[in-house]
């Protein structure tokens, strides 16, 4: 189960894997690293919105949805999760350990880079 660190919910690798495959729960997972990091390797179908850009879209996110944020080691995604929580989002989680801790499938390239925000782009296909 997820654990709480400094008031923020953290999910581990197995939980994230399960969430990615749970179609009923329909959690939105978002990578908040930089473009170059994402293009090197990312979780398939997970969209990229870099940490420095995500705040500009905060009013476009659905506060009723559940989100998990991913970065390289868990630090940037922790900050993004904390920011979302401070903006009234109740169901947000940080992926503990980040991509350094991910041992499942990865892909490279600019698969799903969010350039102009469209909530439909966040949905996994």
Query: What is the average of the pLDDT values?
Result: 95
Tally of contiguous helical segments:
4
* Helix content bin: 10-25%
Strand content: 15-25%
The tally of beta strands, per DSSP, is 5
Quickly give the structural class: alpha/beta
> How far do the termini sit from each other?
25 Å
Low-confidence stretches are none
Query: What is the approximate shape?
Result: globular
Major beta sheet, strand line-up: 1-2-5-4-3
Q: What is the chain-wise order of helices and strands?
A: EEHEHHEHE
Q: Can you give me a brief rundown of this structure?
A:
The chain has four helices and five strands.
Describe this structure as you would to a colleague.
- The structure is a single chain.
- The chain is α/β, with parallel strands linked by helices and 125 residues long.
- 25% of the residues lie in helices and 15% in strands.
- The protein contains four helices and five strands.
- The protein has helices spanning 13-21, 35-40, 51-54, 75-86, and strands at 3-5, 8-11, 28-31, 67-70, 92-95.
- Strands 1-2-5-4-3 form a five-stranded mixed β-sheet.
- A hairpin with a 2-residue loop joins strand 1 (3-5) and strand 2.
- The longest helix is centred in the middle third of the chain and has 12 residues, at 75-86.
- The mean pLDDT is 95.
Set down the secondary structure blueprint.
Blueprint: E1 3-5, E2 8-11, H1 13-21, E3 28-31, H2 35-40, H3 51-54, E4 67-70, H4 75-86, E5 92-95
